[in-house]
Design a protein that fits this description.
alpha/beta, about 25% strand, 5-stranded mixed β-sheet, single chain
């Protein structure tokens, strides 16, 4: 499915704001006021998020646009192809304290199963309108937000999104999130390598339809618990 095309980046972001009341948009950048986790939710998520391989396709050269909207590159008029997904979450430490001012990086394949990295399979057919990589600095409450597309499978892997969390020039965690209920999860070697069942389940998330969206947008939440209590 194609996302909305032929409109300016500013108008596209404004249109998206109508689908999720929790989000606030400012200029050409996208920001979020994600819901604060309740004490009960903290208890359920304080299991340390398992570290996973960054894989071979972290960009060898970062794109000129590295913001948190992967759908539109700079001021292009054409949006990336795919199921538009509003990806939110909260980064907390082992004690449940929000990790503020952390840099959250994500990278993933486009709707054709191709990474930004030139070594990716079928790179000649990459969606040139998909940013492929994004960054967001967490809010004082440890929240982050990205607008991206729902990941698709590619040879040898079930759909997933890579995450790296950094703070004060130190890498706190590299991990991946996966789509709940996807049939290829059972055969994915990276996912199955997480032996603890609860830890494995913690990286499998829902990609749910947003009822108010007229273009079939999705919402996904991935809360991350880093095993360290960073300074500051």
């Amino acid at each position: 499915m194609k996302s909305t095309i032929g409109i300016t980046r500013r108008r596209l972001l404004q249109a998206s704001s109508l689908t999720l009341g929790a989000f606030a948009f400012s200029g050409a950048k996208v920001f979020a006021g994600c819901p604060t986790l309740s004490p009960r939710e903290f208890q359920e998520t304080l299991l340390k998020t398992p570290a996973q391989t960054p894989g071979p396709f972290y960009p060898d050269k970062l794109p000129l646009d590295t913001d948190n909207d992967l759908i539109i590159i700079n001021e292009n008029l054409t949006a990336a192809v795919g199921e538009v997904t509003h990806l939110t979450g909260k980064i907390v430490d082992a004690n449940g304290k929000p990790v503020r001012n952390a840099i959250v990086e994500i990278w993933q394949v486009d709707s054709q199963g191709v990474y930004l990295h030139p070594g990716s399979n079928n790179h000649a057919n990459r969606d040139k309108n998909f940013q492929g990589f994004g960054r967001f600095t967490t809010t004082p409450n440890g929240e982050y937000y990205f607008r991206t597309v729902k990941p698709v499978p590619y040879p040898g892997r079930t759909p997933h999104i890579h995450f790296t969390i950094k703070k004060d020039r130190k890498e706190l965690l590299t991990t991946q999130c996966f789509i709940k209920g996807h049939p290829q999860n059972e055969k994915d070697g990276v996912l199955r390598s997480i032996e603890d069942v609860k830890a494995r389940e913690s990286v499998i998330i829902d990609f749910a339809a947003i009822p108010e969206s007229k273009i079939g947008e999705l919402a996904a939440t991935f809360n991350i618990v880093v095993g360290l209590t960073p300074k500051g």
